[in-house]
Design a protein that fits this description.
globular; two-stranded parallel sheet; DNA polymerase, domain 1; mainly alpha
């Protein structure tokens, strides 16, 4: 029981606990599918679909910050996603 509580406490203290997904490399938001976008932390199917729909309607993202124009992605969500986002091919991160 004590080990279980210790494991839970450790999990809650870590920003990317096992329940949090994190891609192994940055996700190219200009070409990623819904499934690929769902690898991002806190991005479910609906949000991933909104990102793809936004991209289809407005064209490719020119700046990573444009993700905040997608419904459901505000400043706080964007701050958590930013390290995992890319604009270019091959998962090259954008310039901060």
């Amino acid at each position: 029981m004590l080990k279980a509580l210790a494991a839970l406490a450790l999990c809650l203290a870590l920003p990317l606990c096992a329940s949090e997904r994190a891609p192994s490399k940055p996700i190219n938001i200009n070409s990623a599918s819904v499934t690929e976008l769902m690898q991002l932390p806190k991005v479910g199917q609906k949000t991933a679909e909104r990102i793809v729909a936004f991209r289809k309607q407005h064209g490719n993202f020119k700046r990573i910050e444009e993700m905040m124009n997608v419904k459901g992605i505000g400043e706080k969500s964007f701050a958590k996603l930013r390290p995992f986002l890319s604009l270019g091919p091959g998962g090259v991160p954008s310039n901060p």
